[in-house]
Amino acid sequence: MPASMFEFGLFGRLRQNAGPHWEHYVAHPFLQQLGAGTLPEIAFRRYLTQDYLFLVHFARAYALLVTKFHTLPEIRAAAGSLNNIVAELPLHVGYCAGWGLNETQMEREPEATETINYTRYVLDIGHSGDALELLAALLPCVAGYAEVGLRLLADPATVMEGNPYASWMQNYSDQGYLDGVKAAIELLDRVGQQRGADARFDRLSEIFTTATRLEGAFWQMGLNAVENPVNAW
């Protein structure tokens, strides 16, 4: 996926309007340390555990998105994303096993405040708004991780050889993942054209930027585990 895809259509406008909040999210110190291979393991393990819990709620949000659509192509698109997340969970669990984390342990881990804040915000938007508003809340995660992966691989400061986080970076720059992101960005644009995004831009931008801020807080949660290891794996 070319970098210009992140500037495409409604997503590109929302991303630009998020301003410094977007840059803080995709270039967070957590990611800079991850790219350099210097991120403390406790920070990454904390992130992995909470990300498992996050993905469960993210799947719920996409299941909700399916119900917001009325045409079969849109339903298929939303269901495809839901299926991808559900299929990703066993892969996530397998990856976490390499860090000494099993699914039972992660299921029992209390949700961090940052996890609750983010996931419940997205679900609240889904319950109170329409498909367009829910997509605006979902896209910072979906597309942001692709931008993170591509930026890290392109960054001269990134170390791949001997970096314990190399496979994580490669996962989010994988062509299969990027194809899914492209489809999500295009779906947002189509739904925006159908449902009056221009007239609703301020509200959509508020939702998108809030979700972006919550993404940044999610990275910070991982870093906070270094200084406060209580409940951190």
TrEMBL record:
What is an example of a GO molecular function annotated in this UniProt entry?
Answer: thiaminase activity
Q: Please give the SUPFAM superfamilies that the UniProt record associates with this protein.
A: Heme oxygenase-like
* Entry EC number(s): 3.5.99.2
> Known CDD domains for this protein?
TenA_C_ScTHI20-like
| InterPro entries to which the protein is assigned, alphabetical | Haem_Oase-like_multi-hlx, Thiaminase-2/PQQC, Thiaminase_II, Thiamine_Salvage_TenA
Q: Give the UniProt record's GO annotations in the biological process aspect.
A: thiamine biosynthetic process; thiamine diphosphate biosynthetic process
Q: What is this protein called?
A: Aminopyrimidine aminohydrolase
> Which species is the source of this protein?
Pantoea coffeiphila
